[in-house]
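Action item from last week, closing it out:
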Amino acid sequence: MFFGNAVATVGNQTATMKTPFRLRPYRDSNRPALRFVVNYQENGKRARKFFETKRDAETFTQARNVEFQNQGREGTEFPSWLRIMAGECNERLHPHGKTIKDATDHFVAFLEASAKSCKVSDLVVELLNAKLADGASKDHLADLKARLNRFAQTFGEQNAATVTTAQIDDWLRALNLSPQSRNNYRTVINNLCNFAVSRGYATANPAARTSKAKVVRGAPEILTCTQTVALLNACESDTLPFVAISLFAGLRAAEMERLDWAEVDLAGGHIEVKSAKSKTGSRRLIPISENLAAWIRPLACRAGAVAPLALRDRLDAAKERAGFTKWPANAMRHSYASYRLADCHDAARVSLEMGNSPQMIFQHYRELVRPADAKRYWQINPSAEGAKKIVRMAS
């Protein structure tokens, strides 16, 4: 007395198809009211359903076996709640061209990354150690540490895999910095998030999708020839070489602070910026102009730092003596680039000397200086009108 087979007709023949829902009598002294049981499988596991009357048991069995014939074993063993969920999820994913498998793969990867991830504060330490091992300069490490520690003040205890684009965007905007400074922070956080992805601590870089602040760039501010003479005259002998080389060779401030007199070749007529001291990591040679040679030759040493001790204080004092109430950012390097391009009319040549791209030189420094002013700038030397005499430094 059970329903275990269904009959199907194929042409003139009949075939018996084994069905998964089987009704059998049931006896249990502890549950005397239950008299019938239906055995079947669900989610790959054996299951049973009990009934008090044969009619209810037969109705259930017949209905499920009909469903089995219509949908096959896969349909009957697939729970209805799961079929409904799968349909809803598939409908939501379809407009994006994704499947349930795509969604599952993505979420499982996120869960696995979160499980092996670390706190943002630990990620910062790990990145700084990696940069140190890779040979990053002391100044670069100090800049990274300052910016990343500020980020860690807010997100330090958060799992690195869970930081979102919206969180980073809101944090960057709340810094209340200039557009360029905000973008500088964005670059550093982007590097941190890329590092997290490379270590398997996150599946994606949320910083890559953050908004960039719009930077409206004006023309670089440069010193006039009159201001240049005033600055040189205001320098003490120990500060003068640093200022003269900055004005007439255009080294970056950080490169100037690392420059040694052994790298200033007056006889050969060039200054060497070693790769280890260059921002770009590339060695370059910068020609020593005649007026630069005149300013530094009496003060040159065989070796030792070109930059004096207490450099910042000495420079500030010189600027004050020269009459500056406001000092333009990177004024000496910008002045070199502008007057040099106006003098030689060769952006590629200037870019090699400065360690920048020709496009950047052409875009920012073209036509800032009139030819007459460029000619005057490169004639500023100790014997020029208004220039002071040089007192030799002790070697």
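Closing note: Residues 276 and 282 are 8 Å apart (CA to CA).
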